[in-house]
Amino acid sequence: MALLQVKKRLMAMAGLVLSAYLIFHMLSNLSFFSPEQYQAFYDFYNQPLIRWPLWILVAASLMFHVIVAVQIRLHNSKARIHAYHHRQHHFIPAWLVSIVITLILLFIVWHMAQMWSFGGADIYGQTVTLFSSVWQLAIYLGGVLLIGLHLQHSLTNVLQTLGKTSKQFYWISTAIVVLLVVGFAIVPIVAYWKA
Question: Could you give the angle at which helices 48-79 and 3-29 cross, rounded to 10 degrees?
């Protein structure tokens, strides 16, 4: 198997780890609708033996995913001598992908910095206070939407690599991404209205 194919598979595996964490994170956020369960979950989650190993796994997966993606992109850029004469159906310009990925990484750093400042006996109240600002809400929703777009693009590519190119698979992957985005978006929207 060519080195490029190995890198693509490893990048996809790191992406699966990140996707699993996103699903876990979204489901845990839905406990927001019961302040007691929300606080109980984060009291458990913030224990050092739970939080640190999980964060190390996620951070390592994210760094690996980004580094390999950059390597693949550089390889593909060097390999392409001439521009395509016909644009692909779902063509996304490289400059736009770079901007979106940069914004996603900035959002992740911003979100992590905020979450690390949370703690104590009223994480529910801290969440409501955080999202009482329309700017915080807009940044969060924008970040979640960009992550959703990246996931949709990635799932489409993975399914195409596996030979699953029918519209049925496209719509299933789209439905999964929409559920994830809505699951993440509903908590800050409700928190904003409660504030």
Answer: 140
What's the predicted TM-score (pTM) here?
0.86
167-194 tens-digit pLDDT: 888 888 899 999 999 999 999 999 999 9
Residue at 6: amino acid letter:
V
Return the SS3 of 58: helix
| pLDDT tens figures, 99-114 | 999 999 999 999 999 8
**Region for residue 88 given its phi and psi (left: phi exceeds 0; alpha: psi -120 to 50; beta: otherwise):** beta
Tell me the domain boundaries of the chain: 3-82+114-194
Q: Which long-range contacts (CB under 8 A, 24 or more apart) does 58-67 make?
A: 58/17, 58/18, 58/21, 61/14, 61/17, 61/18, 61/21, 62/14, 62/18, 62/108, 64/10, 64/11, 64/14, 65/11, 65/14, 65/15, 65/18, 66/101, 66/105
Closest by CA to 39, choosing from 112, 127, 116, is: 127
Helices (H) and strands (E) in the chain, counts: 7, 0
Task: With CA atoms as reference, report the closest residue to 9 among 92, 74, 67, 65.
Answer: 65
Q: Measured between alpha carbons, how far is 170 from 165 in angstroms, rounded to an integer?
A: 7
